[in-house]
Amino acid sequence: MGKRAARNGDRSGRGRTRPRSRGRRSARRQPRALLLVGGLLGLALICGAAFSEWRGRDAGGPGPGYAAETPLGSRAPLPADSPPKPPKDDKGKKDKGEGKDEGDASGKEKGDDVPASGPGTFTPARSSGAPVGTGGPLRRYKVLVEDGVDVSPRQAATEVQAILAHPRSWAAHGRGRFQLVSGGDSADVTIKIATPATTDRLCAVNGDTHGELNCEVEGGVVVNLKRWVRGSPQYDGPPAEYRHLIINHEIGHMIGFRRHMACPGEGKAAPVMMQQIKGLKGCKSNAWPYTKDGALVEGPSVP
Q: Is the pTM of this model over 0.70?
């Protein structure tokens, strides 16, 4: 009976260790639960941020630390390069004297203020034309004007072209063919319009031009700006007509008339190969190699 009672007593809890209370177990598990909840919350925040960033990328908007690619159609244009410089002379732009008055209907010349010297650099005429002439070799020429003077390269080239195409010119009588080419192209002849001081320097190989004369040099012609603008006191005609004499005289040297000519007689037309600026010696001023009837205007050769 004692052993049985003892077993019964064990069942009833007598002599058995008291079990841990629920309050104590709850208190001990609380920190772990808090840690677990905190971890889950942190994981949720991280996932939410990742989802937000992904969503931002997918929509094209920038997420944290992410620069979204801007659609091509809405990109600001790249900064443009510096605008190219306008053409020097044949696009109606003002440059190196471009756009200045070249004369008026009365024939009165503009720009009489001729500088004595210039920088020695030149602007080419960016103009070209068809060949003119009826025979002989083709000579391609270009026209350049010294920088800083009141003469348009384009206008100067147009005048030279008209002079060489004139019916009383060398080209019209089988002495050669001539073609105006743009300044950037290769040429057989270079025609430069230069200030008196620059003309003297470029012509020095042929002698002193004294700030007054023009000259023919190897591969080209140098025209004194003073003569181009003002003409010559000895020439009975406007400066625009005297320009014919300048070009015809220097081109005449180039095509074979190496020596100058003298006045053929009192009252007769002076040959273009005569240095008319040094005096007419009784002749009448003349700017064309040929007469209206097509006869070559000649005179005695000057040694």
A: no
